[in-house]
Amino acid sequence: MAKAAIAPEVTTSETWTPSRRMRSAAFAERERVEREAARLQARRDELGRELAAVEAAREELANHLRMLNRFVHDDITPATRNGGSRLRAVPNRSADPVPTGNLVLKGARIREAAVRVLAGSTQARSPVHYRTWFELFTREGFLPAGKDPVATFLTQVGRSPVVQRTSAAGTYQLDFLFPERARRRLTELGAALAAAQDLPVDAGVDDIAAARVRRTELTSEIQATERALEEALRSLGDKPD
Predict the structure, then answer these.
(1) How many CB atoms lie within 10 A of CB 102?
(2) Which of 40, 142, 187, 229 has the most CB atoms less than 10 A away?
(3) Contact 162, 176 (CB under 8 A)
């Protein structure tokens, strides 16, 4: 009588055990994927912040353009239409909270205009009290938006990269040397970023992660310094006296 054939043993997923080498490879791959996912998430967050900043800047420019258009159409005279000299708008001292003839500014436009006004005055190189500065500002036909124009003015000029507080209360001074310092700092940051890009051939995971963090920090500081320098140049000019 012939014996029945014995079926070969089949290894199933319930009985199969991966080797130690395969498990190590899987763990390493999982860590790599997690790091890449974290990097992409951080990049997504960064781009989201940049997009929000761009949208805010765009909206501010749109509001500023609308105000400029209204200002031009409302205050242009027959003399200026025919090529005559432009008349400077002067503040209206009436009880109206937003005097007719004033150009209402918001955000960075306030501090840039304020710096230009002070830089073009006889007090450009001297400490100036904020009330005197605000009077110069409004005398040139500008007015900060908001319920409290003076408070808005103080908030904005305090954010300017070329404005310094002095030891006297309520007194400020322009920093004409800021652009030079910012340019030097950008040169230093550029060299540091280039060095952070140059990884050794035997760099490990920790070295690569640390270099990436360092590059992110340097890039962020470079962008902030560039923005501050751009604002300083818009406020003071490329080559201030």
Answers:
(1) 21
(2) 142
(3) yes
The maximal CA–CA distance of the chain, rounded, in angstroms, is 125
Amino acid at the residue 45: D
46/132 Cα distance (integer angstroms): 41
Looking at the DSSP bridge assignments, the partners of residue 104 are 143
pLDDT, tens only, 117-165: 999 999 999 999 999 999 999 999 999 988 899 999 999 999 999 999 9
- pLDDT tens, position by position, 99-117: 445 688 999 999 999 999 9
DSSP string, 128-149: EEHHHHHHHHHHTTEEE-SS-H
CA angle (197, 198, 203) in 5-degree steps? 105
**Closest to 222 in 3D by CA, of 183, 198, 192, 189:** 189
